[in-house]
What does this fold into?
Amino acid sequence: MELKDKNILLGVTGGIAAYKAPGICSLLSKQGANVKVIMTEAAQKFVSKLTFQTMSRNLVYTDMFEEYPQDAEVAHIQLAKWADIFVIAPASANSIAKFANGIGDNLLSATFLAARSKIMIVPAMNTFMLNNPATKENMQKLRNRGIEVLGTHFDLLACNDVGSGKMLEPEEIVEEIDSLLREKDLAGKNVLVTAGPTIEAIDPVRYLTNHSSGKMGYALAEEAQKRGANVTLISGPTSLSRPKVSKFISVISSLDMYQAVTEHFITADIVVKAAAPADYRPKEYHPQKIKKETGDEFRIELERNPDILKLVAAKKQDQIMVGFAAESENELANAMAKLTGKNLDMIIVNNIKAENAGFQSDTNVVTTIDKHKNMERIGEMPKTQLAKVIWDKIKRTFL
Ligand SMILES: Cc1cc2nc3c(=O)[nH]c(=O)nc-3n(C[C@H](O)[C@H](O)[C@H](O)COP(=O)(O)O)c2cc1C
It folds into this structure.
C-alpha cells in the first residue's frame, strides 16, 4: 500500500451509506495515512462528528465560518492545500450536483472548488437518483474534468429498491485510493502473469493438483495494474476473488494454460510466470467415475505436460521473462539451472519449507537471481508488499 504518511481528506455527505464511512477512515488510519474529515450538515444526521474524530484522531471539520484552533488559514483553503487526495464517500446526488456546477455554499463544496489534489468521488444513492439524467450528466462532467468517479454495486438498497447505487465497500474504496495514488511507472506496458495451480482430471470426480493458492501471482498482477500496466492474468482454479486486471483468463489444466500463454505471449512486454502448472497429467481420462471395486491397488499412468516456461521462453523476442521456482532442497543451485536452462531474465525462488512462506501463506520469503547472477534475499513480508518490491526490482534491472 502506498498510503503510509499520505494526507487523505475524506468528505462525508448525507446518505445512508455514511454509516460505512468510519470504516474507510479506520482502514486508512491503520495503513498509516493521516485522515481529516469534512462532514456536511446532512451527514451529521446519519453519523456523529465524534465517531470520525475518534477514528481519524483528528479534528472534524463541518462549518465554513468556524475558526478551527490549529489552523491559521481559512479551513477550506488550508484543507485543500493539505490533501494528497480528496475522497468524497459517500457522495450524495446533491453534493455531486454542486461539485459539477461550481457551487461552494458549504465547507465541503467550497473545499472541492479550492482542491488541487487528486479527487475521487464515491457515489451512493437510490437507483432512480443515480439514473436521473441530471445526476448522470453531473457525473460525466466531473469525469471529463479528470476526476475519478467510481461505480456502484447492484443490490437491494436501503430504500428497498433493487438496482445500482449501493456504495462500494470500504475495502474496495481503500484499494481504489491506493491505486490512484500509485505512480504509473508501468504505463503502456503489456504484462502477462500466470497464477495458481492447474488441475488434471482423472475421471469426472477426481483430479490431480498441487497446493498453489495463486496469492503471489494475483498480488503481482494487481500491483502491475495499479501501476498503470495493461495486465492479462491467466489463472488456474483458485479460491481468490477475481482481481481488477485488464483481462482475466480462467484455465483448468496445464494444456489450457499452455494454450492461453502461447496466445498472449507475443504481445507481452513482461511475462511473470507465478503459476504452478502440473508437470504430469493422467495418460487416460475415464469418462465415467472409476468404481472402487476395481481392486485394492489402483495405478494411474501419467504423461508429461508441456514445459510452458521452457517452450514459451524459446520463442522469446524482447520480452522480459520472470519465472518462479518452488524448491524444497538445493534451492539456489536448482534455481540457477532453471534461470539459464529456460532463458529467463530473473528467477524468484521460494523455499517452500521455510516458515511463513510458499504455498497458501499470506507472507513469503524469497531470493531473486537475475541473468547477471545478482542475488538478493528478501525477508518475510506480505505477498502484496513483496509484489511491490519485485516490480521495483524488475523496473530497476530491466526498464
Ligand atoms: C434517510 C435518508 C437517506 C438518504 N440517503 C441518500 C443517499 O443515499 N444518497 C443521496 O444522494 N441522498 C440521500 N438522501 C438525501 C440527502 O440527505 C439530501 O439530498 C441532502 O440534501 C444531502 O445533503 P449533502 O449533499 O449536503 O450531504 C437521504 C435522505 C434521507 C432522509
